[in-house]
């Protein structure tokens, strides 16, 4: 499939003979990429007003230190080396591994309303992962993320509705997407007991599919952070008795688009574009 898309001038590879860094979409496939992102925003926006923001490529390491990122995923981050004299002190920089860290960093030490608030951003993410030969494992990829902050009960319910609505949307395009529970790396993933508890509580859910770029490929997830990020970034309400939790729904755009077009006969992009629009209408009709 990848070679076919390249031959049609819809896709190009960024990388070397040793490692695939990422994919670039071109022409009409890029237009489908934009449409898909637009539809995800529309589907999430059915829960209420979205507050969008932009992201930067770099983050100071202090942001990730706050949540123990380097302890949990020591081989994952990719560092940037500033061009400064060796005698001059400077903050360490890391290429952003996920979109939501920008959201929490922007809200740090701020007073937040005690009501569910939905943020969204699309960011360039960078991760060094060991499986260099997997077509779905990219060093650099794009993530569309929806981040909800609010009272605990509202947060989990709102994010579950967004996650399940997008899952239905994908299955209107092709009925080979399913939901699975998973473990969150920030909650003691090495403990068998903790893993069982996480799965029972549904701390993390993934959208899984099989396609040309991988079997049992995860194209999206819903993560329930509880109060981890709101506490670490000191995001709070006026009242000390009101607790804020957070949760996010995220999709890797390259994986998602390539998994979708792989399911279309002859990788017909025009047909995929039509199916995306039709699937969105089907979800809207469910609400009528």
Brief characterization of the structure:
Helix content is 37%, strand content 27%. It is an alpha+beta fold and 288 residues long. The chain has a single domain (28-82, 91-286), classed as Bira Bifunctional Protein, Domain 2 (BirA Bifunctional Protein, domain 2, 2-Layer Sandwich), CATH 3.30.930.10.
Would you spell out the secondary-structure blueprint of this structure?
Layout: H1 2-7, E1 11-15, E2 20-25, H2 27-44, E3 50-52, E4 58-60, H3 61-65, H4 69-72, E5 78-80, E6 93-95, H5 100-106, E7 117-126, E8 140-150, H6 152-173, E9 178-182, H7 192-201, E10 204-211, E11 214-226, H8 228-232, E12 245-252, H9 253-262, H10 269-287
Parallel strand pairs: 3-7
Antiparallel strand pairs: 1-2, 4-6, 5-6, 7-8, 8-12, 9-10, 10-11, 11-12
Helix pairs in contact: 2-10, 6-10
Describe the structure.
- Its EC number is 6.2.1.-.
- InterPro entries: aa-tRNA-synth_II/BPL/LPL (IPR045864).
- GO terms for molecular function: ligase activity.
- It is a single chain.
- With 288 residues, this protein is an alpha+beta fold.
- It has a single domain, classed as Bira Bifunctional Protein, Domain 2 (BirA Bifunctional Protein, domain 2, 2-Layer Sandwich).
- Helix content is 37%, strand content 27%.
- The protein has helices spanning 2-7, 27-44, 61-65, 69-72, 100-106, 152-173, 192-201, 228-232, 253-262, 269-287; strands at 11-15, 20-25, 50-52, 58-60, 78-80, 93-95, 117-126, 140-150, 178-182, 204-211, 214-226, 245-252.
- The chain has a 7-stranded mixed β-sheet. A 3-stranded antiparallel β-sheet has the order 4-6-5.
- Helix 2 (27-44) runs parallel beside helix 10 and helix 6 (152-173) crosses helix 10 (269-287).
- The protein starts with a helix and ends with a helix.
- Residues 191-200 have low confidence and may be disordered.
